[in-house]
Amino acid sequence: GAVVSQHPSWVICKSGTSVKIECRSLDFQATTMFWYRQFPKQSLMLMATSNEGSKATYEQGVEKDKFLINHASLTLSTLTVTSAHPEDSSFYICSARDREGVETGELFFGEGSRLTVL
Amino acid sequence: QQQVKQSPQSLIVQKGGISIINCAYENTAFDYFPWYQQFPGKGPALLIAIRPDVSEKKEGRFTISFNKSAKQFSLHIMDSQPGDSATYFCAASPPGNTPLVFGKGTRLSVIA
Fold this sequence. Notes:
The complex is a heterodimer of chains A (118) and B (112). Chain A is mainly β and 118 residues long.
């Protein structure tokens, strides 16, 4: 299957700083990537849909000025948590489909990035 | 309409037993139903998936049963092993390049 790589896998930062998480499709071009957030022992919550070359579409209740998403190329999308606070601590996971997946629906996930804000 | 309801929330199964997890949906536009397995600290990994034109799909020890009229689908894990202990999520999506809607997850523990 297609490989989606996320970096960093974990990050600790001080309150008020910004953190950038990268999501790369390693062996395919992803015109669309999806960003999810997961709290401990809970399900995945869709944050936004990231489209290459255009602005991300955010889900209701997700602050677009807090969670900046950039999808500058067909293989890279980034999520920047700006002015992070402890309540932003969470597990962030990106996902993407390859060309076949757009037809079949199959979605591949990255390994996730654990953010801890002190 | 966009919800996928998953049960049970947690499940304990003896080694060698059958693990059964159920999901139900409302949106009849959904046409893709995958199951994901997630270990702690890792991203979800696709386990098996089914489309509404098939009532059952089997891959190794994992089987999806699909009931279109009841709008329900389930995951059966045969001969459950301790290594199967993980959180399992059902999901669904309509046609097109749309995001998956996830169930709340089931924490499976397989004990020896």
